[in-house]
Amino acid sequence: MTNDVTVHEGITYADRETGELKLDLYLPEKENPPLVVYVHGGGWIAETRSNIPDPEQYAAEWDCAIASVSYRLQEAPDGAAVEEMYDPTNPTPRGHFPDHFVDVKAAIRWLRAHAGEYGYDTDKIAAWGSSAGGHLALLAGVVDDVTDLGDAFADEVEQTVAPEESGAVQAVVSWYGAADFTLVEDDVEGLIPLLMGGPQSEIPERWAQASPVTHVTPESPPTLLMHGREDEVVAVEHSHRFFDALEEAGVNAIFYELHDLNHVWVEDVEDIESERVAMDLLAADPTHAQSVYEATHVEAGGSPDPLLADLPPAGPEAIQQFLDRTIR
């Protein structure tokens, strides 16, 4: 136990053909806290669940349980144009999309099934993800469970872990997540065509159904988006399109667009390290230029109930206020 947070590392939540999938759980002293499920970045092909901003610190500061989950990473055939990202020593099991999404939903259902054992509240769960993890967190928000992903994936999804539990989440935080694959160049050598199993021109249904923006409805959960305007890895237009879709559907949302910042909150893409230091970079200059877009929907005769009371700068305080408003 550190910083009044109890840590359970390496909990197995699923056993796939390629190996065990694990999660790390961080529990604050607060009795029956709400739960945040973190999905790491790494281009769907790299990194591990340790790629997370200090979970002990934020579990304590936010009074939230945090679960950082592993998911099957993308397998890459010999000669694929992703060699610089593919690390054969990474111990995480591998597979092919939609395995990544299947695993994130399995972790959410497993966490619901074991809430009594660990002592957190699963009536309301938030998904938080960065980059590729942002894509999976957004998808987890707008698609109730894997069987709702779409006809293009119907033969590739199955609920084998805690199938009796709900895989839905009640709030989403996305850092520079991919929301609309149709924005990606249709390049047969690229990462997204590898993920989708072919170019968009040949399998447009898979590209569309794997895009979170496709699934937005009035029942989608409130969402907090943060994205750098100068992002060279995932264009900021992804978050613009997702925010616009939420606004049109009547879903409350907040979108922070950070001027001059690139992927993982750096100014130069060559300086990217990992999400482990991302919150420190974001919090280092809270006065950094940013535009904030807010969609607050009011029923006839009702009163506005914004997601953030005073619109603090992008960073831990904004996330905490959002979680306080949505999952407490």
TrEMBL record:
InterPro entries: AB_hydrolase_fold, BD-FAE-like_dom, GDXG_lipolytic_enzyme
Domain BD-FAE-like: 23-246
Pfam families: BD-FAE
Keywords: Hydrolase
Molecular function via GO: hydrolase activity
Stored Gene3D superfamilies: alpha/beta hydrolase
Name used for this protein in its record: Alpha/beta hydrolase
Organism: Halosimplex litoreum
